[in-house]
Write a structure and sequence with these properties.
0% helix, binds zinc ion, Rubrerythrin, domain 2, 43 residues
Length: 43
């Protein structure tokens, strides 16, 4: 997942043909890792 720093659009890695926002063609992209669900074991 990538977030465009300019327009704030979020898109998946496979949407990218170049490392560039497909919406506003900004090259400033922040990589976003999906929130991991941590399972806590109850003792
Ligand atoms: Zn953009």
């Amino acid at each position: 997942m990538y977030v465009c720093a300019k327009c704030g659009k979020v898109f998946a890695d496979d949407e990218l043909t170049f490392v560039r926002c497909p919406y506003c063609s900004s090259k400033v992209l922040n990589k976003q890792t999906p929130p991991t669900v941590k399972k806590v074991k109850a003792i």
